[in-house]
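Q: Sequence in, structure out?
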Amino acid sequence: MSPSELFILGARWLHTLAAVAWVGGGLFYLLALRPALQGSSFSENINKRVAQEFRNVVDTAIWVLLVTGAILFLNRVTSDHATVPYGVVLGLKIALAVWMFYLVGFRQRRSAAPSWEESAGPGRPLLRRAKAVFSGTNLILILGVVVLLLSSILGELFEIDLTNG
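A: Exactly. Output:
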């Protein structure tokens, strides 16, 4: 393996590790920590502390994703195996990732993020529930899962072109 191939492998590994840390941490919070703390007397204090620490993880992940993403982008789009479908899926992935970065930055600038119930607001129960699911932290997590799916699709598209070319 050449030094340039090792460099790309390292960039891909760091890119994946940052994405997994961000999305995996969000899934852990949503599916394990938040339900475990619900109703406890100290849940608000722990939620604030976890959010503060996780924000550091997310900030680091964003920088790693930006740097390694730029490297991987240049490596793949300058390849002979970057097809039009690959470019379309890559463009969608980048757009969703930029949306995630914006949402994280927007949430950090706000003084206090509303709770799940506050973000739902008034209205019909189904509409309130949908609004709560697709807002704030939940939306960032949903986008992250979709971005990971698009990453897998990109890998498959690249492999298909390698085997056919």
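The chain has six helices and no strands.
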